[in-house]
Design goal:
The protein has about 475 residues and is α/β, with parallel strands linked by helices. It folds into two domains: about 270 residues, 3-Layer(aba) Sandwich (Aldehyde Dehydrogenase, Chain A, domain 1); about 190 residues, Aldehyde Dehydrogenase, Chain A, domain 2. Helix 1 packs across helix 7, helix 4 packs parallel to helix 5 and helix 9 crosses helix 10. The protein is globular. It comes from Streptomyces afghaniensis 772. InterPro entries: Ald_DH/histidinol_DH (IPR016161), Ald_DH_C (IPR016163), Ald_DH_CS_GLU (IPR029510), Ald_DH_N (IPR016162), Aldehyde_DH_dom (IPR015590), Aldehyde_DH_Superfamily (IPR050740). One of its GO terms (molecular function) is succinate-semialdehyde dehydrogenase (NAD+) activity.
């Protein structure tokens, strides 16, 4: 892979790390090194910060229509390069090409959505209740932002954060996950081609996240952090933001319940389960983690789900006909192996899968477990792999109590043919999003985010741009 962008993007220029350091990017399907990219240190972070701060004032004054047109052009360029971006993503992350192409379309849509929102940033005017003052309300960019993205959706998580920041008039430093820097660097190249001014977006790839991010958050010049990743890392970042009261939005971990009632259409439920569990090989914060199935239909649901999972083809994502690619790395696969082993030791039965294949790469087979003990570690751990763990329940109150018995609250899934029950249970779930008779909730036009320890704020939808804007109120005496 000699034609990929592999330098830092700072102030509109492609540069090596100040100390010359590089880091490898691995192919999870083979374990081989694809290429090396610049490995930024604190000096590079400081240069990126300076570029973002210097560009902020002029960028904030840029006409909303100009910002909108840059995003629209970038949207078009992404779609024009779907195959190129999909192959790049599959190479560094592992997902099958069909899924990678789907992510390219999903990623592009955030730019189209926020290109339309850029010209709809409004304020307000009115007389205050005492009649003495008029109130003028305006919204303005929060300022330079640090955006930290994960490896599981390397292109879409970038556009979901960059899109509203550009639309709002904020400059940025993007720090992508070290496993998947290539998609972010390609995105920076596209935005430069689309006309984004120098310094508005800076991309700092690094294996030294603590050395790079902590000084930025404690330094007082970065005014906004948007982070997607684990709850544990999110807590550390929140503490670092406290010193200078950096505004934060956090999309953290999940432990999604998938509830199947006795009146559910099992064909619909199994279809939903395949999407909610197997999208991105289960490496998604929205992935169904705990399958609560009514006792009367649990055996049939498990049989059908195992049959569907058994039919999936596992292999390198670039190979035709492959449904399930490798997990991101050996650490991720090792975690899945340990969780399955623990469940089996506690009495779970393996309906399909459950054994790591021999050979290179980080592959793990689609797996269905039944008779899972509530004490199993995978009940309170984000699995991040292709493992469906089935438990049974008897009544609505019981399943709601068990579904909510977790510190996380990102998404839940409910399958029932009763509208009243579906809405009642959806409203009873302590989550930010619910899929009612569907296994897919993510959409650029909908607000994405959770409650409890699954995060703060929302991304996407009409409210997504609000995370990057501040209100200013001006009092004008009535004469």
């Amino acid at each position: 892979m000699t034609d990929v962008l592999n330098q830092l993007f700072i102030g509109g220029a492609w540069v090596d790390a100040a100390d010359g350091a590089t880091m490898p990017v691995d192919d999870p399907a083979t374990g081989e090194i694809l290429c090396h990219v610049a490995d930024a240190g604190p000096k590079d972070a400081k240069l990126a910060e300076e570029a973002a701060v210097q560009a902020q004032q002029d960028w904030a004054r840029t006409a909303p229509r100009t910002r909108s047109e840059i995003l629209r052009r970038a949207y078009e360029l992404i779609l024009e390069r779907t195959d190129e971006l999909a192959h790049l993503m599959t190479s560094e992350m592992g997902k099958p090409l069909a899924e990678a192409r789907g992510e390219v379309a999903y990623a592009a849509e955030f730019f189209r959505w926020f290109s339309e929102e850029a010209v709809r940033i409004d304020g307000g005017c009115g007389t205050l209740p005492d009649g003495r003052n008029r109130m003028l309300l305006s919204r303005r960019p929060v300022g330079p932002c640090l955006l930290i993205t994960p490896w599981n959706f390397p292109l879409a998580m970038g556009t979901r954060k960059i899109g509203p920041a550009i639309a709002a008039g904020c400059t940025m430093i993007l720090k992508p996950a070290p496993q998947t820097p290539l998609s972010s660097l390609a995105l920076a190249g596209i935005l430069k081609e689309a006309g984004l001014p120098d310094g508005v977006l800076n991309v700092v790839t690094t294996s030294r996240a603590g050395e790079v991010c902590e000084p930025l958050l404690r330094g007082g010049r970065i005014r906004k952090l948007s982070f997607t990743g684990s709850t544990g890392v999110g807590r550390i970042l929140l503490a670092q933001c406290a010193d200078t009261v950096v505004r934060t939005s956090m999309e953290l971990g999940g432990n999604a319940p998938f509830i199947v009632f006795d009146d559910a259409d099992l064909d619909v439920a199994v279809d939903g389960a395949m999407v909610a569990k197997m999208r991105n090989m289960g490496e998604a914060c929205t992935a169904a983690n705990r399958f609560f199935v009514h006792r009367s239909v649990a055996d049939e649901f498990g049989r059908r789900l195992a049959e569907r999972m058994r039919a999936l083809v596992v292999g390198p994502g670039t190979r035709d006909g492959v449904d399930v690619g490798p997990l991101i790395d050996r650490t991720g696969r090792g975690k899945v192996e340990e969780l399955v082993a623990d469940a089996v030791e506690r009495g779970a039965r393996v309906l399909v899968g459950g054994r790591t294949p021999e050979g290179p790469g980080c592959f793990y087979p689609p797996t269905v477990l039944t008779d899972v003990s509530p004490e199993s570690r995978l009940m309170d751990t984000e699995i991040f792999g292709p493992v469906a763990a089935i438990l049974t329940f008897d009544d609505e109150d019981e399943v709601l109590r068990r579904a909510n018995d977790t510190p996380w609250g990102l998404v839940g899934y409910v399958f029932t043919q009763g509208l009243d029950r579906g809405l009642r249970v959806s409203e009873g779930l302590e989550v930010g999003m619910v899929g009612l008779n569907t296994g897919l909730v993510s959409n650029p036009a909908a607000p994405f985010g959770g409650v409890k320890q699954s995060g703060l704020g929302r991304e996407g939808g009409q409210v997504g741009i609000d995370e990057f804007l501040e209100y200013q109120y001006v009092a004008v005496p009535v004469r």
